[in-house]
Specification:
This protein is an alpha/beta fold and about 325 residues long. Helix content is about 35%, strand content about 25%.
């Protein structure tokens, strides 16, 4: 297999307005959307990437296309929808961390469906990435995500899935059912510990790793935030330690993890080395503001990795 792309992501891009801490009415304009953050993270690590989505025929859509072209993300398969807007969201910061407010109902991306899903990039990639948010924004987008997974698997591509649970978008019972089914179709399942606890009903990290494996995913990386990653390929369990950093804004850290992980897997790293790299990249992105601007380049990730002791393997 000699794929045209290393990574193709399917999902919803958004324009971001991120509150400057300590300044209630001042916002820094950026970009976001979980799969969009991931595809840019993959591109910054050197992967050949493409994005599959829909944009409104508006200024925000033009901003996103300009961003992708600057970042080297192929937008040839991004449709412009003249009847729906590009989604936006706002991030505020307080004592309990960051909070999100969305203006995405009826977005152009939510009108993605199997009937308008371009299959060429999905069948021409080493790794396909989609998420629970993509599935939650509309029934048709959920169907499109599943259709993309089916097409990618049929073509021999690997599937990378991040549940990114958002209970404001869909009922927990439906989320549990759809996420469980999709995780079982994935080669790499990347839940956060917070999401896994909500979905599994259990608290212990090892129990949540076991729960995720039982869904049928071939590999699981349970993201533990500042504590690193607990992962398994079904035969061995490994832990990647966290990095002591000054976290200024964790927006998009898990997405940076996904994109960086995919880039390194596509480059030929083994599961363990790709996890270590992605964990370091995710830590670095927390040192800046916004979802996209702080995503690091390889030289910064390598420098941080050089300071980390070897991860522990547990046979």
């Amino acid at each position: 297999m000699n794929p045209r792309y290393h990574v193709v992501c399917v999902g919803e891009p958004m324009v971001e307005f991120n509150q400057v801490p300590g300044e209630a009415r001042r916002y820094l304009q950026g970009f976001g959307g979980d799969t969009m953050n991931a595809v840019i993270a993959a591109a910054r690590q050197g992967a050949r990437t493409a994005y599959v989505t829909r944009l409104g025929d508006d200024e925000f859509g033009q901003w996103l296309r300009a961003l992708w072209r600057t970042e080297g993300v192929d937008d040839a398969f991004v449709a412009t929808d003249p009847e729906a807007p590009t989604a936006v969201y706002f991030v505020t910061h307080g004592a309990q961390g960051h909070a999100f407010s969305y203006r995405r109902a009826g977005s152009a991306a939510s009108r993605l469906s199997p009937s308008n899903l371009p299959l060429e990039p999905v069948r021409s990639t080493a790794l396909l990435h989609t998420s629970g948010i993509t599935q939650a924004i509309s029934d048709s987008a959920c169907d499109a995500a599943l259709a993309a997974i089916d097409a990618a698997r049929a073509a021999g591509a690997g599937v990378v899935y991040d549940c990114n649970l958002r209970t404001r978008l869909w009922p927990l019972a439906r989320a549990r059912a759809v996420i469980a089914a999709t995780a079982g179709m994935s080669d790499f399942f990347l839940p956060s510990l917070e999401d896994a606890r909500a979905l599994s009903g259990t608290h212990d990290p090892q129990a949540n790793l076991d729960w995720a494996l039982a869904l049928g995913a071939r590999h699981v990386a349970l993201k533990l935030g500042g504590q690193g990653v607990l992962a398994s390929d079904g035969h061995r369990t490994l832990r990647v330690a966290g990095h002591p950093i000054e976290c200024r804004d964790a927006t998009g850290a898990g997405d940076c993890f996904a994109g960086s992980f995919m880039a390194r897997m596509a480059a030929g790293d083994d599961f363990h080395d790709a996890l270590r790299y992605a964990n370091a990249a995710a830590a670095l992105t927390c040192t800046g503001f916004g979802a996209v601007a702080p995503i690091p380049r390889p030289e910064a990730v390598r420098a941080l990795l050089a300071t980390q002791s070897a991860a522990e393997f547990h046979p």
